[in-house]
UniProtKB/TrEMBL annotation:
<keyword id="KW-0472">Membrane</keyword>
<comment type="similarity">
    <text>Belongs to the sideroflexin family.</text>
</comment>
<dbReference type="GO" id="GO:0006730">
    <property type="term" value="P:one-carbon metabolic process"/>
</dbReference>
<dbReference type="GO" id="GO:0015075">
    <property type="term" value="F:monoatomic ion transmembrane transporter activity"/>
</dbReference>
<keyword id="KW-0813">Transport</keyword>
<protein>
    <recommendedName>
        <fullName>Sidoreflexin</fullName>
    </recommendedName>
</protein>
<feature type="transmembrane region" description="Helical">
    <location>
        <begin position="270"/>
        <end position="290"/>
    </location>
</feature>
<keyword id="KW-0029">Amino-acid transport</keyword>
<dbReference type="GO" id="GO:0140300">
    <property type="term" value="P:serine import into mitochondrion"/>
</dbReference>
<keyword id="KW-0496">Mitochondrion</keyword>
<dbReference type="Pfam" id="PF03820">
    <property type="entry name" value="SFXNs"/>
</dbReference>
<dbReference type="GO" id="GO:0005743">
    <property type="term" value="C:mitochondrial inner membrane"/>
</dbReference>
<dbReference type="GO" id="GO:0015194">
    <property type="term" value="F:L-serine transmembrane transporter activity"/>
</dbReference>
<comment type="function">
    <text>Mitochondrial serine transporter that mediates transport of serine into mitochondria, an important step of the one-carbon metabolism pathway. Mitochondrial serine is converted to glycine and formate, which then exits to the cytosol where it is used to generate the charged folates that serve as one-carbon donors.</text>
</comment>
<keyword id="KW-0554">One-carbon metabolism</keyword>
<dbReference type="InterPro" id="IPR004686">
    <property type="entry name" value="Mtc"/>
</dbReference>
<keyword id="KW-1133">Transmembrane helix</keyword>
Length: 325
């Protein structure tokens, strides 16, 4: 606790999230705070102020009159705008807080303009361009990815998404109209399956660090990388489900009503609004599905690493790794 008179103690760990990350609820509260779109409205001066509070606190200097709530608020504002490894300010649309507004606009348009080939291609391309910016802005400093690899991932994911969208569009043309509305979702899912593994190909080549319970590094594992990347692909696809599955059903029945038939221009804004409503909840809740720190049984690791760990410490049965987002 904190005394009324004295200043804040220096032992609050602001490197870690505020809430217990071993519980779903703690992770959900953390990601609701991280993805809060209101952080985009903060001015440069407010971001600087938060950065100063955080950096001073880490250096052992408490800003006079600071409360614990203000310290945590500063931490989350700082994390929302600055890259954790480089400390540089992240481009506005690459920030976690931009995920909901950007995705709601792009997904809303994908779901609205799914009938004509040029608009399908355009919106799938816009979506993958946005993904590339986010991936570039949030790339980890540990395994630097080259611009060439980023380019390959971008082109492949865009091609995969467009091919899936157009292929399924032609396949579903003689099926009920509601089926056609789910084509954009399939395209986004396919793109995620291509994009994320390509973006993180270095981890698939050299592995990711695995640690014991205390955080001591035990080596690098490709098996852990595969498991982590698979979990990320799943949670990204789940993130898209509410936004891409609920609005189409609602819109399908609404578009049959006179109200919308007389005002066709209302389709896109309505769709964007519905998608936004779904995303505000789906994004943080799906980020919270799996803990950031995942675990894997030693028996499932590569033979060499398994032998190495067994030699170092035969009592270790489970190792941990950071799965990324």
């Amino acid at each position: 606790g904190e005394s009324k008179m004295g200043e804040l103690p220096l032992d609050i760990n602001i490197q870690e999230p505020r809430w217990d990350q071993s519980t779903f609820l703690g992770r959900a509260r953390h990601f609701f705070t991280v993805t809060d779109p209101r952080n985009l409205l903060l001015s440069g001066a407010q971001l600087e102020a938060s950065r100063n509070i955080v950096q001073n606190y880490r250096a052992g200097v408490v800003t006079p009159g600071l409360t614990e709530d203000q310290l945590w608020r500063a931490k989350y504002v700082y994390d929302s705008a600055f890259h954790p490894d480089t400390g540089e300010k992240v481009v506005l649309i690459g920030r976690m807080s931009a995920q909901v507004p950007m995705n709601m606009t792009i997904t809303g348009c994908m779901l609205t303009f799914y009938r004509k080939t040029p608009t399908v291609v355009f919106w799938q391309w816009v979506n993958q361009s946005f993904n590339a910016v986010v991936n570039y802005s949030n790339r980890s400093g540990d395994a630097p990815i080259t611009v060439g690899q980023l380019g390959t991932a971008y082109v492949s994911a865009t091609t995969g998404a467009v091919a899936t969208a157009l292929g399924l569009k032609s396949l579903t043309e003689h099926l009920p109209p509601l089926v056609g509305r789910f084509v954009p979702f399939a395209a986004v899912a396919a793109a995620n399956c291509i994009n994320i593994p390509l973006m993180r190909q270095r981890e698939l080549q050299v592995g990711i660090p695995v640690t014991d319970e205390t955080g001591q590094r035990l080596g690098h594992s490709v098996t852990a990388a595969k498991q982590g990347i698979f979990q990320v692909v799943i949670s990204r696809i789940c993130m898209a489900i509410p936004a891409m599955a609920i609005p189409p059903v609602i819109m399908d029945s609404l578009e049959k009503k006179d109200f919308l038939k007389r005002r066709p221009w209302l389709g896109a804004p309505l769709q964007v609004g519905l998608v936004g409503f779904c995303l505000v909840f789906a994004t943080p809740l799906c980020c919270a599905l799996f803990p950031q720190r995942s675990s894997i049984h030693v028996s499932r690791l590569e033979p060499e690493l398994k032998a190495q760990i067994h030699e170092q410490n035969p009592s270790i049965e489970v190792v941990y790794y950071n799965k990324g987002l």
